[in-house]
Amino acid sequence: MDKKINKPHPPYYAVIFSSQRTEGDNGYGKMSEAMEKLASEQQGFLGMESARDNKLGITVSYWRSLEDIKNWKENSAHKIAQDKGKREWYKSYQVRICKVERDYLFEG
């Protein structure tokens, strides 16, 4: 994972986005950075963790409420990125929305 986040005490929500990319960047990196910045400015955004190997990417974003997640999905700039992702950047993806009822942390 490449980002530490400060999650609140449960319950909160996690959006798990797993994807398989197409070949090449084709502007993906720049848009990804822009979307991460924009998401962080949205009401209810709590943080994000992300990992990618050469085939599979997993990004988990954390939100205060289902309404906050819905508003982010419907954000106009995010919609443009979603459409471009379907056309150019992803072979496939899956989104899962989960309620986090309990969590714990180990730091060695």
UniProtKB/TrEMBL annotation:
Gene3D superfamilies: 3.30.70.100. Signal peptide: none annotated. InterPro entries: Dimeric_a/b-barrel, Jasmonate_Hydroxylase-like, Monooxy_af470. It comes from the Bacteria. One of its GO terms (molecular function) is monooxygenase activity. Keywords: Monooxygenase, Oxidoreductase. This is Heme-degrading monooxygenase HmoA.
